[in-house]
């Protein structure tokens, strides 16, 4: 992202989805990308170099098959989620001492996921934190910012669009509770629904999920909400 404004952020997410797509499902004009299958034993990774406040830089490593953040680089040292004795994905890395799920991250940060600022100022501060801080609570909060603005926003078009419109506002930009509950926690479910519909068409009993108190009655509606699917 050259400039973190609305257009630049949306362009970054569009490009990321194209790079990560293994295939597309759905009709022309209303299709959605699908990730490559996740190889659990030997996952593939991709790195994103982020620049924050004062030109501070960090490289964050993500898992190709599910977009999970696995770790990041501070100087020449890699840090990854987990603690001593856990599976180590990045050679010679140091463990952060906490896991990468939102429950563990919020616990380590001492803040709810919905209390974390996701605007440009929150992003720039988060990148500087990852580049310089050795405090676990600061690192955890910063990794929530990265997971939201890169991974979650890639998974959901509705999320990247909503975040982009307010990313430059001076007021804090917080995730709404329904976005966490109805979108992020259900990504695997929605992916499975759309892939099943793609395979079986109208023979498939579409389950009509509820998102932000709105019933999503068709696959066409659901595809418009998603940015990229888990290949389940």
Describe this structure in words.
It comes from Agave rhodacantha. Pfam families: RIP (PF00161). Keywords: Glycosidase, Hydrolase, Plant defense, Protein synthesis inhibitor, Toxin. By secondary structure, this protein is of the alpha+beta class. It has one domain (1-232): Ricin (A subunit), domain 1 (3-Layer(aba) Sandwich). It has eight helices and ten strands. The chain has helices at residues 6-20, 102-109, 120-132, 136-155, 157-166, 177-183, 187-200, 219-225, and strands spanning 21-25, 32-35, 45-51, 57-63, 69-74, 77-80, 94-95, 210-211, 214-215, 228-229. A five-stranded mixed sheet has the order 3-4-5-6-7. Strands 1-2-10 form a three-stranded mixed sheet. Strands 8-9 form a two-stranded antiparallel ribbon. A hairpin with a 2-residue loop joins strand 5 and strand 6 (77-80). Helix 3 (120-132) packs across helix 4 (136-155). The radius of gyration is 18 Å and the shape is globular. 36% of the residues are buried. The mean pLDDT is 96.
């Amino acid at each position: 992202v050259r400039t973190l404004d609305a257009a630049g952020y949306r362009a970054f997410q569009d490009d990321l989805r194209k790079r990560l797509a293994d295939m597309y499902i759905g009709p022309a004009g209303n299709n959605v990308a699908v990730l490559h299958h996740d190889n659990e034993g030997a996952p593939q990774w991709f790195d994103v170099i982020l620049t924050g406040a004062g030109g501070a830089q960090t490289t964050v490593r993500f898992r190709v098959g599910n977009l999970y953040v696995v770790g990041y680089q501070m100087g020449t040292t890699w840090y990854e989620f987990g603690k001593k004795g856990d599976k180590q994905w990045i050679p010679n890395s140091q463990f952060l001492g906490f896991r990468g799920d939102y429950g563990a991250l919020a616990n380590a940060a001492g803040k709810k996921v919905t209390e974390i600022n996701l605007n440009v100022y929150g992003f720039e501060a988060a990148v500087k934190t990852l580049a310089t801080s050795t405090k676990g609570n600061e690192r955890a909060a910063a990794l929530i910012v990265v997971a939201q603005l890169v991974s979650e926003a890639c998974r959901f078009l509705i999320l990247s669009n909503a975040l982009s419109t307010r990313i430059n506002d001076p007021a804090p930009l917080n995730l709404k509770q329904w976005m966490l509950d109805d979108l992020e926690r259900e990504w695997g479910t929605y992916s499975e629904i759309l892939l099943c519909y793609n395979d079986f068409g109208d023979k498939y009993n579409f389950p009509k999920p509820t998102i932000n108190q709105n019933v999503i009655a068709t696959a066409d509606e659901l595809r418009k909400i998603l940015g990229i699917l888990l290949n389940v």
